[in-house]
Design goal:
The structure is a homodimer.
Chain A (H helix, E strand, L loop, with lengths): L4 H4 L8 H10 L1 E5 L4 E3 L7 E7 L2 E7 L2 E8 L3 E2 L1 H9 L6 E4 L3 E7 H10 L1 H27 L2 H16 L3 E2 L3 H8 L3 H13 L3 E3 L4 E3 L1
Antiparallel strand pairs in A: 1-8, 2-7, 3-6, 3-8, 4-5, 4-7, 9-11, 10-11
The structure holds a DNA duplex (30 and 30 nucleotides).
DNA sequence: CTGAGCCGGTGACTGGAGTCACCGCCTCAG
DNA sequence: CTGAGGCGGTGACTCCAGTCACCGGCTCAG
């Protein structure tokens, strides 16, 4: 069950050998295909996942309406599960793998101790909190500003950046879900964006210009 | 300039004497009247304020439209300025005192060291991050759900709780600003809430029922 | 081949928030 | 006393997201 330090070393250049071996002793690697639920609302967290490779989507749901909060990229942690793990309170959000991902699972009960002991780990989590904080702020601002065209365009840009592709193969229905709106709205706004020359809809998907 | 340990001890029961004296040596107390700007968007943070007494309002602004993010109550810290201080990046939000407040100012450059050294301080900040995180999530959900009546009612409940009063003396204009909408909308929705029996508007202010 | 099911596209309508214009009321400075 | 300015109240209108109903095209299993 114990994993090899060499497997995780490349992802944490800022960690010293001691911390790496402690993590290797108690943590475990998990290979998840796309579409696996990592964290569910209301769930109590026993392991805190760190995304080593792949892409994980974090979102909230309010009565049938969901909203994408942000993506967790490589070598980032799910700070919501971290916070839920630390305070032993239930999670407020959902997380699922969007691409096949390699996850490092850390037992929540040991984490508090590690944080106290290893500054590098502490800093990682502060950094993550910061990142998420700012992303949530952006989400709030774009919700406040309203304007679906603006939101949709930013969504596409971000998606393209994360996937490293200029042509995105997405269902209108899926986009609608992530932006918390209806499919027809997406269809219309996409057409509007196309008329404005910001994107192009082809057979293979949506191309960002 | 150096302040007395006794002045801050009552607010931090979980801190040991060593930490208290370190803080007393480098920190300073500041008595601010209501309506003072503590943090401005784009500003680089040199001191991180902790609210000992009073009430501080934190909000964002997007092109003439502002939105209340949350309130900082007694013995809580402004985590945005903390994060801005740590990462040496400009602030993304505004903060002003809503009531006369007693602030403890900590120099940002020393904070990183303190956090490393004193677990209790570290935990305070984690706790604060958590709290704000959850509040932002609530804000996002209520923005997503939309419905002004729901948002306004929650806003009034929260305001009443923080001020410890059941009758709130607020300008419609001010409420509108904090919820990121227009005065007329507030006027109308307040009337609707009154018809629903949730509040009562009297000469002295808005009474929550 | 064919029917079911998913996908996108569209027109018509609804409802809520935001905007505009204008009101009367109160207060306070001059 | 009076005029200016802040406040709240209101009707009319606009705009946009969301909803409904319905279509035609494509794919794939049987």
């Amino acid at each position: 069950m114990s994993l090899d330090v060499a497997e995780i070393r490349p992802f944490f250049k800022q960690f010293n050998e001691e911390l790496l071996s402690v993590i290797a002793a108690s943590g475990s690697l998990h290979n998840a295909p796309a579409g696996i639920e990592i964290l569910r609302e209301g769930q109590y967290v026993k392991v805190v996942p760190i995304v080593l490779q792949g892409l994980v989507k974090v979102f909230t749901r309010t009565e049938e309406k969901e909203l994408l909060l942000y993506y967790i990229d490589s070598a980032q942690s799910c700070i919501m599960s971290f916070s839920a793990g630390l305070t032993q309170s239930p999670s407020r959000v959902f997380a699922i793998t969007e691409e096949p991902s390699l996850l490092l699972l850390l037992p929540a009960d040991k984490l508090t101790g590690w944080i106290r002991e290893y500054t590098a780990l502490n800093e990682l989590f502060y950094q993550q909190y910061n990142l998420r904080y700012i992303e949530m702020l952006d989400t709030i601002n774009s919700l406040l500003f309203g304007k679906m065209d603006y939101r949709l365009y930013n969504y596409l840009l971000e998606k393209g950046r994360l996937k490293g592709e200029k042509v995105l193969d997405l269902r209108h229905k899926q986009i609608a879900a992530e932006l918390g709106t209806a499919r027809e709205v997406i269809t219309r706004v996409l057409k509007k964006l196309e008329q404005e020359g910001k994107i192009k809809q082809t057979a293979t998907g949506i191309e960002i210009i």
